[in-house]
């Protein structure tokens, strides 16, 4: 397969670069600093929205939102959204949609429960079976979308009905009695191997320190490589400011988790691995560039030699894998398999992807943005729950946030087209 021509393929990063004037000669240090600040403000606008929402609910809840145990619960309760949002943003970037992930989560979770409780299968084996089932479901959907060229909306709508029905047939009553070791995947925390320092978990502090060091290293290395390649880079002041702000944020939440009852949740390690792996895939691999190419300009991608059918097939296989991983986390969190598991999960994942900056038309989106979108949804849920807001109103508010996020995206496209 021939490699895509960069002149024909427009990725989301190149769009940002052209829109922000990256690569052009900007006269004067002051103008360069303003241009650099403006670019980063646009890039981190959704992160600023998350911070504003956190501050808003922190005030309204009297400081309860950021209580250490609530922060740990926020991660544990919304891990499934983050996992699904990563797969969903890839689907959306490739110009598709997946309405079936919630039903797949329920079906795969039911299989896990029946295998472990009713058939006595060791839970690690059941987990492997669940992942295989997720991959097979992904292949099934990818075949209809990529090979038969049936719109993904129709295929996944059908799969949503199929697997929701199979879940109800399979799990006719709650399947409880899952092993504590399996339940701890979504409810437990890492052991306190390093002990405690004035009631702060040493392992969590170490993880936070490693995260900050990794942030500094990757940012400085990226700037050095861009500068060596002759590309425009942010000024030293902007880079330093960004590193200080992000390091402070990581340090703050690290200390909150370190002071919580259990320290670092196990599921946070799983989510962190997913974020790192898929960020690398989307930003540093040929497959990731092909996803952006297919979603950004389908005709140009084909002319450049991109195997569009393979890309479409693989994004759905990947979504099946991540749905099975979300099913493992969800079933572990509940401690049982129930027929209603996964209900409306697809809406949470789609909302997280769009709120995080994915474009309705495809070709634009980031894994980091999807995670921030999932956190926004999680903070809304937790904040409204602490305030004892009725669940019906919670759904209405989340729906309004989704509509506003898409409206902002469309308005931005119209302004840039003028």
UniProtKB/TrEMBL annotation:
The keyword Transport applies. It holds the Pfam family BPD_transp_2. GO terms for molecular function: transmembrane transporter activity. The chain crosses the membrane at residues 44-67, 79-97, 104-137, 143-163, 202-220, 232-253, 259-281, 311-332, 371-389. Residues 1-13 have a biased composition (Polar residues). It is found in: Cell membrane. It is a multi-pass membrane protein. InterPro entries: ABC_transp_permease. Keywords: Cell inner membrane, Cell membrane, Membrane, Sugar transport, Transmembrane, Transmembrane helix, Transport. CDD domains: TM_PBP1_transp_AraH_like. Residues 1-27 are annotated as: Disordered. The keyword Chloroplast does not apply. Part of the binding-protein-dependent transport system for D-xylose. Probably responsible for the translocation of the substrate across the membrane. This is Xylose transport system permease protein XylH.
